[in-house]
Structure formats: C-alpha cells, structure tokens
From TrEMBL, chain A:
<dbReference type="InterPro" id="IPR050277">
    <property type="entry name" value="Sodium:Solute_Symporter"/>
</dbReference>
<feature type="transmembrane region" description="Helical">
    <location>
        <begin position="6"/>
        <end position="24"/>
    </location>
</feature>
<keyword id="KW-1133">Transmembrane helix</keyword>
<feature type="transmembrane region" description="Helical">
    <location>
        <begin position="367"/>
        <end position="386"/>
    </location>
</feature>
<keyword id="KW-0472">Membrane</keyword>
<dbReference type="InterPro" id="IPR038377">
    <property type="entry name" value="Na/Glc_symporter_sf"/>
</dbReference>
<feature type="transmembrane region" description="Helical">
    <location>
        <begin position="392"/>
        <end position="413"/>
    </location>
</feature>
<feature type="transmembrane region" description="Helical">
    <location>
        <begin position="266"/>
        <end position="291"/>
    </location>
</feature>
<keyword id="KW-0813">Transport</keyword>
<feature type="transmembrane region" description="Helical">
    <location>
        <begin position="119"/>
        <end position="143"/>
    </location>
</feature>
<feature type="transmembrane region" description="Helical">
    <location>
        <begin position="179"/>
        <end position="198"/>
    </location>
</feature>
<feature type="transmembrane region" description="Helical">
    <location>
        <begin position="425"/>
        <end position="444"/>
    </location>
</feature>
<dbReference type="InterPro" id="IPR001734">
    <property type="entry name" value="Na/solute_symporter"/>
</dbReference>
<keyword id="KW-0769">Symport</keyword>
<feature type="transmembrane region" description="Helical">
    <location>
        <begin position="235"/>
        <end position="254"/>
    </location>
</feature>
<feature type="transmembrane region" description="Helical">
    <location>
        <begin position="74"/>
        <end position="92"/>
    </location>
</feature>
<feature type="transmembrane region" description="Helical">
    <location>
        <begin position="45"/>
        <end position="68"/>
    </location>
</feature>
C-alpha cells in the first residue's frame, strides 16, 4: 500500500462518514430510518438505485468476465440494462402507491394475515443473506488483493463501516453513500473507457479487428463460458425478472414521495446503467488486450482484478489507487443497502408487526431498527468469515433466482389479479424460495466432477447454473393453484382489492412526505 | 400520480387545516365506487394494455438474444469483425432507452386521465 492509495482510501472513508454524520441529525423516526422520510428527489434515488445495480460484481466481475471470456461476460450487461424496463413498466409505480417500508408492507396492504408478512420477511432475509455473503467474501478477497491486508481484517473493516452508516444515518446515509459511489464509479469507468478507446484510435472497427486477429474470433461470440443455450436463457431470465423482486431495490421506491418520482428515479437509473454497461465492453476488451489474459488470470482466476490492472496499465499508480478506492466504495455502498433491507425485515416486519402487533412507539421502532441492523451485520460477517475459502459469487445468482421465482409472481398477482388470495401468496413464495435453493444446491455451482471447481465433488443433478427457467414458472403456477384450489376468501376481499386497484392506478391517498 | 390533495386543494398554509383534511380523506374515499366507474375501468384497461403489451414485446426481443446467440444468425460477422451478437445487444440497449423515453412520455397522459377520473368521482359525488 502506498501513500496515494492511502489518501484515496481515507478520502472515501472521510467523505462517507461526514455524510453519515449529517444524515444522523436528520434521522429520528422509523420513516427516516427506513425510507429517508420518503424525501429523496428523483435523480437522487435514480443514482442510488444505479448504485445498487453497480455492485462490485457488476464493475469488477463483468469487466473481468469480458476480459476472460469475451461476449459471455457481456450477457450480464444486457440483462442488467433491460431489467430496468420491467421495473419501470410494471413494478415501480404500483409499488410506490401501495407500500410503506418493506415488500411485506405492500403485500399486507391486501392480505392482512401475519403469515403473509412472515413469509415475505423470510424471503427478504434469505435474499439479503445470500447476496451479502457473496459481497462480503468478494470484498474481503478484493481488499486483500488491492491493499494487502488479511481477509478477516478486510471483512471486519467493511462490516464495521457498513454498520456505522446504517446504524447512525439510516436510509439517508445509505442513499448518499450510494449516490457518491455511483458518481465516482461512473467517472472512473468513463476515464478508463476513454483511454482504451483512445488507444484504438477511437475506432470500434479497429478494436474488434484487434481482438479478432490477435486473440481470436471465439471472444466475439458466446461459447467460452456458456456453452448451453438453455443455461444461458435461464440465467438471462433470472437477471431480467429477478431485479424486480430484489427487496433492496424494491425498498428504494419508498424513499420518494410519489409514483411520479419513482418513475423519474428509474428513468435516471436506466440512462446511467445503459451508459455504464456500454463502457464495460471497453474495460473488458482493454484489459484483455493491454493487460493480457494470462496476467489477469495469474492475479485472480475469476478475473476480478481486470479493471484495476487495466487502470494501472493506463494511468499508473494514481489511476490504480483511484479505481481501487472506487471499488472499495462500491462494496461499502452495496452492503449498507443490504444491511438496511435485512434490518427492515427483522425489525419492522417480524418484531414490530408480527410480534408486537405494530404497537411500537416511534422511538421503540428506531431502536428495534438499529438492533436489527447490528444483528444482520454480525450474522453476515460471521458467515463471510466461514465462507472465505469457498467460491460463493454464484450466490448472487441464487438471489436473483429467488427474486424472480418467489417475489415477482406474488407482487404481480397482488397488484393485477383480482382472485388472488393469501394461500396463493404462501404457495408461490414457498415454492419459489424452496425450488431455487434446492435446484440451485443440486446444480453445477455446488457439484462438479472436477475437484476444487465447486463446493462438492460429484455430478450435478440439475445441469442449470441458475434454475430460473424451471423455478419462475413453478412460482407462478404455485400462486395460481394455491389460489384456485382453495376457497380461502376473506369477507371483505373484494372491497380490499377494489381499494388496491384504485390506489395502484391513481396513487390516491399515498402517505405524505414526513419532512425534509 | 395524482394525490387527492390536488383534487381537494387543502389550504397548505394552514397546517392544522391540512391535517384535518388528510384525516377526512382516508375515510371519505369510496374505493368501490371508483372501481365501478366506467371511466376508471376504461382507463385501467387502456393503461394495462400499453404496459403489458410493451413488456411482452421487449421481453420477447430480449430472450431472443441468448437463443439466437448460439445460432449462426448472430454468430456471423455483420459489420467488419463485429458479430451479430454485439449488434443485437447494442440494439437492446437502444430499445431500453427508447422505451424508457416512451414511458416517460406516456405516463403524464395517464396521470391526466387518472386525475380526470378522480375529479369525476368528486363531482359525481358525496354519498
């Protein structure tokens, strides 16, 4: 670690702590804590959602994957970008109009039973923990590489930072950390892409010619990593539909005052992600050509350090330090959002609403939220410390799979299907959740005949790395059958659905902004 | 979208008054009545047709990518050394921003219709 790196590193830590300090003064109620009082502006929330998308997996993972496998890596970029449209067209506005703090709040606006809240919270916590372990393990390994500190220490540092932001600054601090990181990341990526494009004389043709002649045509088509069409289709389904079921993304729609602002948010996110993921081509091809596949693989087999290595090649130590610091900020921002989302499910849904029947004072709610944040952080840190030697980056795809198979069917049915009932909710969520975990656990990410390639040695029973192509239809079918095969109909079911339909479509009676 | 406050026009300068209006409106909205209004149902049908129609189209075009990417169609070189998969992917990026712009253009129109529906409900009446 050298002086420039330390300066950038401390700069990020300092800036985010100042933001947290300012945010802490504005965080007094539960609404402040979970949703920043609903007072974020469209562009702010748009940048923050973009921040959630642009995780370390997206920045380092995608550019590395393109560097090592060419087009196979770019599949992810396309998936992340198009996913915005699903959110924009059918999820964002009704979500804003019906919900308060969590996914469970939105579902219980229609089905008031506690078991509905319970299963929604279970799904949220499962997704958050899976996602978080993958992020923390990745973060530990990355910080170890970039700054040369031990894995356990790196995980603890990230853990303490994320807990600090959330504990004191709640959603306001988390959002601003996301916004700062999104701007830095976009800036850093643009510089790298510009320098790469410059080296190719600003000619796309020349860049593709170089890759084709010097590295081979196999990088210009899929087939190095993904050889099966079904497997790729399945993964792409999980990406495009799963985003709309990820609780930490859905929660972001409650931070704005109305559906109109939710719409503006996603509009911003769409543009930012479209620009960012276009640039991943330059980062990937740049790293492949200028750094070299062998050098990248020698440093990290998965290619996660391709972008920092490219930065070092293009701009020396200063650019390397900047990009490393941005990667660090990226990790901090994403895990903070996850802590907050996990805390909302534990403290608001399970403790506040299920155990205490929603009878907590404002002060008790905030206290519960803080205790929940610490609990989820501690659990994740411990799990991440145990998972050190495992390759767990695939857990993120499990999270997308659950989002698409358990949460999305229930969200859509709740908003758009009159006959849907609470048994349908339980059936869809349980089926989606369990099928993703079971089929995923039997898949090639966990089982491989080659020793060391996966967690266990043996043939995978399910040949799909992401089982979404099976589990998404299962989730929808279970929700349908659970509804039509039971006659569980609350007395005022029709009245409630009428209200939901009017609210979702007109935004009438959306709770007002608390303050700011 | 539309908030009832824009319809009811509470006096924003007097906070106390606003609170009482807010309290009153939750009780006073007859959702069943709005839900059975012809204008509301026509609006929802029109809106959903647009939303789900467009969603169906872009999901179809999207999922064609991983299917066609493994066939010669997109594996051929289309422009110089640039293969079909890259051009098609670029097309999906363009589609995304265009449909995003389309939505932001259509949404205010839907807001307007929603506001009209609520106004009609208001005028149609007290129960």
């Amino acid at each position: 670690m050298n002086l420039v790196t330390v300066i950038f590193f401390l700069g990020i830590v300092g800036l985010t702590l100042v933001v947290t300090y300012v945010a802490a003064k504005r965080t007094s109620s539960a609404s402040d804590f979970y949703t920043a009082g609903g007072g974020l502006k469209g562009w702010q929330n748009g940048l923050a959602i973009a921040g959630d998308y642009l995780s370390a997996a997206a920045f380092l993972g995608v550019s590395g994957a393109i560097a090592l496998t060419g087009f196979d890596g770019f599949f992810f970029s396309v998936g992340y970008v198009v996913a915005n449209l699903v959110l924009l067209y059918i999820i964002a506005e009704p979500m804003r109009n019906l919900g308060r703090y969590t996914l469970a709040d939105m579902l219980t606006a229609r089905f008031t039973e506690k078991r509905i809240r319970g299963i929604a919270a279970t799904s949220t916590i499962t997704i958050v923990i899976l996602y978080m372990i993958a992020q923390l393990v990745g973060a530990g390994a990355l910080i170890k590489l970039l700054f040369g500190i031990d894995y356990w220490l790196a995980v603890i540092i990230v853990g303490v930072m994320m807990t600090t932001y959330v504990l004191f600054g709640g959603m306001t601090a988390t959002s601003w950390v996301q916004i700062i990181k999104a701007c830095l990341l976009l800036f850093g990526t643009t510089i790298l892409a510009f320098l790469v494009f410059w080296k190719f004389d600003f000619s796309l043709m020349k860049m593709f010619d170089t890759i084709s002649t010097q590295h081979g045509d196999q990088f210009l088509v899929p087939g190095i990593k993904y050889t099966s069409m079904i497997d790729s289709v399945s993964m792409m389904m999980a990406l495009v539909l799963g985003t709309s079921g990820l609780p930490h993304i859905l929660m972001r729609f409650f931070t704005v005052k109305d559906a109109k602002t939710a719409r503006t948010s996603i509009s911003w996110t769409t543009w930012i992600t479209a620009i960012f993921f276009s640039l991943t081509i330059f980062l990937g091809f740049g790293a492949m050509h200028f750094v070299g596949i062998d050098v990248i693989k020698a440093e990290n087999a998965a290619g996660n350090t391709a972008a920092p290595l490219l930065a070092e090649y293009l701009g020396g130590n200063i650019l390397l330090s900047f990009v490393a610091a941005v990667a660090f900020a990226t990790i901090l921002a994403v895990v903070s959002g996850l802590v907050l989302t996990g805390a909302s499910a534990i403290s608001h849904d399970i403790y506040g609403e299920i155990i205490k029947d929603g009878k907590l004072t404002e002060k008790q709610q905030v206290l519960a939220a803080r205790i929940g944040s610490i609990s989820i952080a501690v659990i994740s840190i411990i799990l991440a410390l145990f998972a050190q030697s495992l390759n767990v980056s695939f857990l993120v795809s499990f999270a997308f799979c659950i989002g698409a198979s358990a949460n999305l069917p229930v969200i859509l049915y709740t908003i758009y299907w009159k006959r849907f009932n609470s048994n349908g909710v339980i059936a869809a969520m349980a089926t989606g959740l369990i099928s993703c975990l079971v089929l995923g656990a039997l898949g090639p990410n966990v089982w491989s005949p080659v020793e060391g390639a996966a967690i266990f040695v043996g043939d995978p029973l399910v040949p799909l790395s992401v089982p979404a192509i099976i589990t998404i239809p299962l989730g929808f079918i279970a929700g349908y059958l659970g509804t039509v095969l039971t006659s569980n109909k609350a007395e005022d079911a029709e009245k409630i659905y009428n209200e939901i339909r009017v609210k979702a479509n007109t935004g009438v009676a959306v709770s007002e902004v608390s303050h700011h | 979208m539309v908030n009832v406050s824009t319809v009811k026009k509470p006096n924003l300068t007097k906070e106390k008054k606003e609170v009482s209006v807010k309290k009153a409106k939750d009780v006073s909205i007859n959702y069943d009545k709005i839900n059975h209004m012809d204008s509301f149902n026509k609006f929802v049908r029109k809106k959903n047709a647009f939303l789900f129609g467009t969603t169906g189209i872009f999901l179809f075009l999207y999922i064609l990518l991983p299917i066609l990417a493994f066939t010669p169609v997109l594996q051929q070189k289309w422009i110089g050394n640039i293969t079909g998969v890259w051009v098609y992917s670029a097309g999906l990026f363009v589609m995304t921003v265009v449909l995003c712009a389309l939505y932001t253009k259509m949404a205010p129109k839907f807001d307007q219709i929603a506001a009209d529906v609520l106004r009609e409900y208001e005028q149609g009446g007290a129960e």
